[in-house]
Amino acid sequence: MNQHIGKQSIKFKNPPSIVETASIVGKKEGEGPLYKYFDNILDDDYWGEDTWEKAESKLQKEAAKLVMRKSNIYDTDIEYILGGDLINQCVGANYAMSGFDCSFFGLYGACSTMAESLSLGAIITSGGFAKHTLCITSSHFCTAEKQFRYPLEYGGQRTPTSQWTVTASGCAILSNEGNGPYITHITTGKIVDMGISDINNMGAAMAPAAADTLITHFNDTGMKPTDYDLILTGDLGVVGSDILCDILNQNGYDIYTQHKDAGKMIFDIDKQDVHAGGSGCGCCASVFAGYVFKELKKNSLNRVLVMATGALMNPMTVQQGSTIPGIAHAVSISNKTEL
Amino acid sequence: MNQHIGKQSIKFKNPPSIVETASIVGKKEGEGPLYKYFDNILDDDYWGEDTWEKAESKLQKEAAKLVMRKSNIYDTDIEYILGGDLINQCVGANYAMSGFDCSFFGLYGACSTMAESLSLGAIITSGGFAKHTLCITSSHFCTAEKQFRYPLEYGGQRTPTSQWTVTASGCAILSNEGNGPYITHITTGKIVDMGISDINNMGAAMAPAAADTLITHFNDTGMKPTDYDLILTGDLGVVGSDILCDILNQNGYDIYTQHKDAGKMIFDIDKQDVHAGGSGCGCCASVFAGYVFKELKKNSLNRVLVMATGALMNPMTVQQGSTIPGIAHAVSISNKTEL
After folding, report:
1. CB A190 to CB B1 under 8 A?
2. Where do the domains of chain A lie, and which CATH numbers do they carry?
3. Between chains, do B190 and A102 touch, taking CB under 8 Å as contact?
4. pTM over 0.90, yes/no
5. Run means of pLDDT, 10 residues per run, chain B, 339 residues
6. Residue A274: which H helix or E strand, with range?
7. B248 within 8 A of B134, measured Cβ to Cβ
């Protein structure tokens, strides 16, 4: 029962259903244009915890609890949780998922983690290995700044190409039964390194990986940009989005109409002082779990490609002179099981 | 086609074959009792690189190339690589797997990563989603010491319960065709936190998770300790191994005869000054890829449970007063597809 179409893509014979999603975001994200799509908006970034790391774990734990309540599918009926985050050793997810009665697969794909989680969750669910999987990730502005950049108290200046890590968690429950929206295809990215070494320009580092995966997706599946109502990247921001669209255009694909970027959607770029836009695993995850899922359920979107991108360095490797490898995973979601 | 037996376990209808493995270890590991099982032993921990992190990446890249040469299955015929390591943001795997023509799923399960990788690789391969998957991980004494403990130059004293991170990479290629050994079952662990907070006693932190997964494995599959020639944990070391065997004994399972621990096997505990034994993702990975696989191929072992354990904290969370959650994933490997 070979379900591979092309080396990097799967067309599911039994497309899993996205039963329900949940999203919780920080105060700043709740002041952005998508505020009405999120299930919960925090008042402050600590959320009653004494460290930002514990607050990020709480984001994931509460998002997981929320999607269980919304779907009435609890951990006793979920075989696998697939999750990760940006904190060293993925402790955001590890502490959050402690206590749930589910097998746990920890993932690291930097900001591509939500698409990685949905991809592996879809494989497990579609293959008959689980009735339900829970796919989750998060990011937090303060845990990311202190770890990847400078202490917040230092007040370091940000370059125009830098992105603002989103404080958010997004999650979804997949099922081998359900009425959609369905994950019909996935295209899983290779690691692409085009020699970018500017740690303040992640969009440029990730755009070539996004282009590679997107072109592969079109080739493998036979779909074209106009088959989609929305091609959502997360999170190339302003700089990376332009590069992606231009590379696609040079390769004969016009995606200017369908393409939007989660990092550009979640903030009002002009008014919220976020420079090139949002980033972090939680950005694509919350825009998917909030905006995309709800618009699919309303039938105002019917076929969406969610393609999350990750920059696979750490601050030390960049200091050691290494370039920044990128990766992008695409998940094709539709209200119908067939094209 | 439900392949779930019990909530945490899968019995594969099409058990994937482990086609080939490869292992590369450091100098100290090459001086240990298992030296003859490893494919390559390094002379020094830099291996011609200018940083330890680059050396660890090279370990993974060369191990992947080696398993491809040994099996004559190259990246053009491998759909997915599943890998990870202990360095922040899993850069050991990320830089190593850049350049291979394969889709990449990044994993983080601390020292349980090899079993996580084999588990997900088996699901993907068995489910018809790939012909071949490559499962890989690594660890490096020097990258782990500087990141998790003290600068090596400081010469910090080690407690008797501390373990020695192994410098090694181990990997395997799984196929949906082949003559075995086969992955027949997997039992995937939950996150278990029993309140241990001593960062120098990882074995004690991980043993309850190992016990939880092992008891679940016996319950779900109906197998018993005597069905196995070897129950290999990695890496509980001296302290954690005793705790595991005692917990199992209290629960009615006598595993004293079948149980061995990769961290105790890879070093001569008395002579090599490694205190409670080896640890790190590369320990279980190299003992599996070296000793276990080769003994299975010789039929001197016929059914083995490989159960890798991970401690899911980071140094900061321990400093912040958090306890150490553990996890363990079990992979049942046999020369026969049926019991």
Report:
1. no
2. 4-175 (3.40.47.40), 182-334 (3.40.47.40)
3. yes
4. yes
5. 87 97 98 98 96 98 98 98 98 97 98 98 97 98 94 90 95 96 98 91 93 98 98 95 97 98 97 94 98 98 98 95 96 90
6. none
7. no
